[in-house]
Every structure is written in structure tokens, then in C-alpha cells.
């Protein structure tokens, strides 16, 4: 770590350009593909099934964002924490609390998503994201390794060095955020908006407005800004975490100074900023494309069949007659219990036992014993239902 850098960032021209100006047709083509793919995603699936997928993706967002920071807990621990079942191991319990805080912060912040990018990309929303996350943590859960307690939503009031990067001096941070607002938080077409989302993600990390928690806050804001596209059905954090080394490398490269006369007119490299945008949009397209394959309606029946055949070979209460009603509630939505039982074609007692077992293992859920039943995605079934979406969920939990 170099503590003797020869300059200090204090003037906003020092982080120009804020948007690339060249080869925009390539970025716009990627943006168009992303918009088209996202629009198709989830078509033909009942909204209650969509809601179950959104719950799963929310947990994934938390897991992967925290994993990028080296602070993730096993997906099974997150699932348990969601029903207030916390570990008796202090460190695991702390990571569970951080995971739940992230999930709840994301829920709270989504109220901004419907207001459009001119709101979602405001620096005030970035501060709100930091506040929403850290205000949910007790002081001991937001204490850094060097003993500093991070205050929710507080812009830093001291200078810092992050790796080889020296962010702007602390008292100039508001000016940099204000400049970002003027460039990114404005109405325009969504193709340009996607480029703004990518650039804002990078430049907010460059400004490093908080003492700690910048990455999580920025990813929460990016989730919000993308929400009208993702519909909560695919996770940008998954793509960033699964390409963590590239993520950090492209972020860092876009901090570079301009490389000669052919590299834009700003202080920083326009070429490196373009490459970051190109990489970011590629990752987003990979994620939505992958989820499109996962939710292919023609394949889901065979996934359900494979799951039920596997379960029935290990559990005598699970029977192949579950396949048809399960596929039905995946596509068409909840059934009342009588209809579900009838659709199995089994005798009433056997059918009731089967349904009870499906609820017990989390494949079917219901608000109470009289409510309709709907499709769910327990972690234990994901390797069959949505293979490779969340592979960490299928690993053994040694925590």
C-alpha cells in the first residue's frame, strides 16, 4: 500500500470522463439484447411462482454480495436465519445477521425502483442504501477489523487509501457525488441508462464515499437501478461474485489515468471505462440468458420429474403421483388442497400424507393448513429444479 501518492483528488474534473463517448453502438447493442431478454423472462409462469423465485434471488443477492466482501455464510444458514434460527457459533450468527440485514435493506430500498433511473441513481439513494443496511446491524456487527464502528449512511470525514487507489479527499466527496448526480441521475432512454448504471457503479466505488461498506451500498443501488429489468428474477451480484477477480480488475483498470491523446479528453482513461461497461453489460446478459434457460417451461416438467424420482427413491412418503399437481401449480398457480389431492389420483389418506410431506420438505408452501398450496424452491431441491443457479446451496455446510 502506497501512502505517499504524489497527488490528491479534490476537483471534479479529476474523475472525468463519467461516460464513454466512443464505440457506443457496441454498448447500445448489448443494452438492447439485455432489455429484450429481460422482457421475455418469466412469461407464462404464474405470479405466485415468480414470487417464490424472487425470494430465492433476494437470498442469492445477499449471499453473493457478502461473498465478494469475504463475509458470506452458507446458503443454508441464510435460509435458517430467515425463520429466526440463528447459529450458536458467534461468528456464523454474525454472518447470518449481516445476510438478513442485506435482504431487508434490499426490500426497503425497492420503494425507489418504481421512480425510474433519475431517482435510483441519485447519490442520496446510495447514502440511503448504506443507511438501510448498516442501521439494521448492532454496533458489534458493523465494527471493522481495526475496531472502527461504521455509522449508517455517514459520508466519511477522513482521508483513506484503498489498495493502490487514493480516493478524493474527504471534504470534496459531496462535490464528486453532486457531479455524478448531474451526469447519471437524469432521464434518457434505457439503453443510455444501462451505460449510466455501469459507469455509476464504477465511479461511486472510485469516490469511496463511506469509511466501509462501499461495495455493498453500490451493489444495492445497482440492484435498484436494474430492478425494472430484472423484475427480481436474475441477480447481477451472482455474475459479479462468480467473476470476482475480473470484477475487481475491471473496476481498478477504470481508475487508470488517460493513456495518451487517443484515450478521450478526461483525466482518467475513457478506454478503460468503456471496457468496464462492456464487461458489466456482458455479465448482465450472461445472467439473464442463464435464467432464461433455467425457467424454460418445456424443461421444468422434466426437472420436477427428476426431483420426485430422486426423492421417492429415498423417502417412501414421496410418490411419483406428485409430479402432475406440482407442475400444475408451477405454471398455473395455487390450488386448494382438495384439488391438489384429487390431481394426484391417489386415495385420500395417501394423497394427504404425500401433500403433508411435500409441505414439510418445502417444495410446496401454504399460509396455514386450510390455505391453497403453491410452488416453492427449497435449497435442497435447487440442484434439480434450477441446476447450477446456486450451486453453493448444494455444498455441505461445515459452519
Report how far the terminal alpha carbons are from each other: 33 Å
- Total tally of structural domains: 2
Low-confidence stretches at least 5 residues in length (pLDDT < 50)? 1-6
As a percent range, the share of strand residues is under 5%
Instruction: Name the helix and strand elements from N-terminus to C-terminus, one letter apiece.
Output: HHHHHHHHHHHHHHHHEEH
**Derived structural class:** mainly alpha
Architecture of the largest domain in CATH?
A: Orthogonal Bundle
The description of the largest β-sheet is:
2 strands, antiparallel
Write a structural description.
This protein has 399 residues and is mainly alpha-helical. The chain folds into two domains: 271 residues, Fido-like domain (Fic-like fold, Orthogonal Bundle); 92 residues, Arc Repressor Mutant, subunit A (Orthogonal Bundle). Helices cover 56% and strands 1% of the residues. The protein is built from 17 helices and two strands. A two-stranded antiparallel sheet has the order 1-2. β1 and β2 form a beta hairpin. α2 crosses α4. The N terminus is likely disordered.
In short:
This protein is mostly helical and 399 residues long. It contains 17 helices and two strands.
